[in-house]
Amino acid sequence: AEGAHAISNNLSWEGALWQNKAYLERLLDPTVPITPMAALTLACGLGVRDPGQTAIAQDALVASWLEGRLEVPVLAEVLRDLIATPLVKLPRFAKSLGAAARAHSLAPRLVFELLCVMVMQDAMAPPKNIAALLELLLELQRELGTALPDKTRAALEAMRLTGKGKAAQKSLLAAA
User: Fold this and answer.
1) Predicted local confidence at residue 51, as pLDDT
2) Contact present, 35 and 28 (Cβ < 8 Å)
3) Distance CA 49, CA 93 (A)
4) 159 with 126: CB under 8 angstroms?
């Protein structure tokens, strides 16, 4: 809880607090369970501006998943709720999740599953810059050759988007 609080209060570097990386480094320990508070700390770490902290969060994401410590639906829900707030910038999440997807040959599946839940937002008022997440989801969908889950597809069909978001939405829905 302390880590989630510390990191979430320093997402945009108003005063870089590099010591916060200690909270993320604990998540690399294979004996540390990814509890709901650890998932919130990890989610905040994936959205932080400091590239060093983000890199640790990406490593912790992939490692905890490969080790069976991470419950993907739990983290996905935390991420979905977090992006509905003005706390984090969605392009930062897209960048960090994209890097995590490239960290291991199996990681694209993990990031695809996370994104499928993350993009299920308020159809009438989706978060600003959701296009970044949709473009990454499209890239992974093509790479994996897999269809969107029914719930994700329904959420995307109902979403009112413009610009890049609309183009990514259309491509995602057109893919098999």
Assistant:
1) 86
2) no
3) 10
4) yes
Record the pTM: 0.88
pLDDT tens digit string along 139-153? 999 999 999 999 999
Kindly list the distances between the CA atom of residue 47 and the CA atoms of 6, 61, 74, 99, 174, in Å, as whole numbers in the listed order.
Answer: 13, 12, 17, 12, 29
Query: Phi/psi of residue 125, each to 5°?
Result: -140, 65
Listed residue (15, 23, 31) closest to 64, CA to CA: 31
In the block, residue with structure tokens 């040959």: 105
Q: Tell me 47's DSSP state.
A: H
Rounded-to-integer distance, Cα 128 and Cα 162, Å: 11
CA distance 150 to 2: 37
Q: Provide the token pair at 11.
A: 């997402």
Q: Which of 86, 159, 150, 148 is nearest to 122 (CA)?
A: 159
Buried b (16+ CB within 10 A) or exposed e, 79-97: bbebbeeeebbbebbbbbb
pLDDT digits (tens, 9 = 90+) for 72-118: 999 999 999 999 888 888 999 999 999 999 999 999 999 999 999 99
Tell me the residue type at 66.
L
